[in-house]
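Aim 2, interim progress: modelling of the zinc ion-bound target.
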Amino acid sequence: MKMKNNLITLDGVDGILDNSRVLSGLPKKPIDIFDQETCVHCNKDCSCGSGEFVNRYPHYGDEYEGWVCGTCASEDDQELEQDVY
Ligand SMILES: [Zn+2]
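Predicted structure of the complex, ligand included:
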């Protein structure tokens, strides 16, 4: 009886570990919106000729992978500067 109880307990621990692995996040696949050529922050068109094309840069986030337009890019720069000083 005692051996059987121990086995059950070990099974329980394994179950908890498996659960926490699931909860702590299986790698979520970001949505690729590079093809849309819209800003991941403001959804503005930043394709070639839109005026936001020049300063756009690629963004690889947890939820989205796509372009960040020039306007949002410069806002990010300002935030970075504020953080530094
Ligand atoms: Zn933007």
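The longest strand covers residues 64-68. Residues 33-85 form one domain.
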